[in-house]
Every structure is written in structure tokens, then in C-alpha cells.
């Protein structure tokens, strides 16, 4: 199995962490791609749009069987899908679909207030009842600098979402994937790690393709 995980920000360490998380679902660690330039964290619509332009033009290896776009706004995923024949899975839409399939009332806990509008639009594609975006308090970059501070902020956001009626809460961001793993044991509701949701969709696509090939 050859899967490409694309990190539209420029932090290679984050790419490695996200690949490990996705690999736990896939069974094999995907190949990682990291943007050559740009911010270490996508925190604004402008940064998301710039990342989309970059992702849309990347040359995907010929042996790739699927692509995961590992930024929560799914920048460039649609444009890239129109260029290549293999599945392109954005982690944000995959997480929303996972909640929708479960018929769950769900929310997002994240760190980027400037992206709330983009997140709300993307989550509306889920078939379940989307309750909104709940934010960790503090500057996004400063939150990412400390695991303890990040975890406390996200857990507080998850708790507010649970009080609002959420049955599942998506931890909204590829770089937040490790925090989603850490918080899964202490959250008052089920957490959805979008990296895992995307990897599960990849497995579904590949299984369907194999079945069709054997038919």
C-alpha cells in the first residue's frame, strides 16, 4: 500500500507525527510530503488559500494509491482530486463524514478563531447535527508551544461542546492529531481524530477498488 500524506504547512516534525498516527490505522506508515515554504501553522483564511494553491499543483508520485490532505480546512483537496485518478481525502471532510455516518450531534474543538467560518462551512457537509466550533483560549502559535497548555485549552473547549449537546467532538487540525490521541482517555465525550478518520476512508476506498478489480 502506497499512501501519500500531504502536510500543507512547513513543519517536517509535524508531518512525521501525522504519518505515525495515520499509519496506526493503515497498517503502514504513509509517505510524507511537507510544504517547502509557508507558515508552521495555518491560522488564517489567507494562509489556507495559499496552501490550497500549493497542494493543487503538487506532482503526486505515480505509485500513490491515495492521498491524505492533512490540514483541517482541506486546502487544495478538491482541485488535486480533479487532476489525479486516485482518492484524495481531506481530513476535515473525512471527520465530518464519520460523525454524519454515526448520526451523532457533533462539534469541533480547535485553536484557530480566524478559521471558524471555513470550519463551519466544511462541517456542514456532515450528515449529523453540527453544533459549532468551540475554541481553546489563547494564541494558536503559543498554544502549540506547550503540550500541557494545548491539552488544557482543548479539553476545556471539548467540555463546553459536550455541555452544548455534542456526542462527538472533532479535534480540528492535523497538527492537533497528537493532542487528540492524548485527550481521548480523559474526554467526557468521544473524540474524533481527523487523521484517523481520513485513514479509515482510505482503507475503505482501497478495499472497494480491490473488490472491483477481482469482480
TrEMBL record:
UniProt GO molecular function: amino-acid racemase activity
Family label: Belongs to the HyuE racemase family.
Stated name of the protein: Asp/Glu racemase
Organism per entry: Salipiger bermudensis (strain DSM 26914 / JCM 13377 / KCTC 12554 / HTCC2601)
Source taxonomy: Bacteria, Pseudomonadati, Pseudomonadota, Alphaproteobacteria, Rhodobacterales
Amino acid at each position: 500500500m502506497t499512501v501519500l500524506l500531504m502536510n500543507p504547512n512547513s513543519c517536517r516534525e509535524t508531518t512525521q507525527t501525522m504519518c505515525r498516527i495515520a499509519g496506526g490505522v493503515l497498517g503502514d506508515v504513509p509517505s510524507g510530503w511537507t510544504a517547502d515554504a509557508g507558515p508552521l501553522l495555518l491560522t488564517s483564511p489567507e494562509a489556507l488559500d495559499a496552501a490550497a494553491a500549493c497542494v493543487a499543483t503538487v506532482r503526486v508520485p505515480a505509485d500513490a494509491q491515495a492521498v491524505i490532505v492533512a490540514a483541517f480546512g482541506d486546502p487544495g483537496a478538491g482541485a488535486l482530486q480533479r487532476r489525479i485518478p486516485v482518492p484524495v481525502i481531506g481530513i476535515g471532510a473525512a471527520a465530518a463524514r464519520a460523525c454524519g455516518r454515526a448520526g451523532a450531534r457533533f462539534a469541533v474543538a480547535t485553536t484557530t478563531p480566524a478559521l471558524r467560518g471555513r470550519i463551519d462551512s466544511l462541517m456542514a457537509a456532515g450528515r449529523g447535527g453540527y453544533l459549532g466550533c468551540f475554541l481553546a483560549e489563547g494564541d494558536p502559535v503559543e498554544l502549540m508551544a506547550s503540550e500541557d497548555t494545548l491539552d488544557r485549552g482543548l479539553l476545556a473547549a471539548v467540555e463546553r461542546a459536550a455541555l452544548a449537546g455534542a456526542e462527538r467532538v472533532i479535534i480540528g487540525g492535523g497538527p492537533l492529531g497528537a493532542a487528540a490521541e492524548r485527550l481521548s482517555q480523559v474526554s467526557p465525550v468521544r473524540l474524533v481524530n481527523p487523521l484517523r478518520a481520513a485513514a479509515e476512508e482510505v482503507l475503505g476506498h482501497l478495499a472497494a477498488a480491490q473488490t472491483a478489480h477481482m469482480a
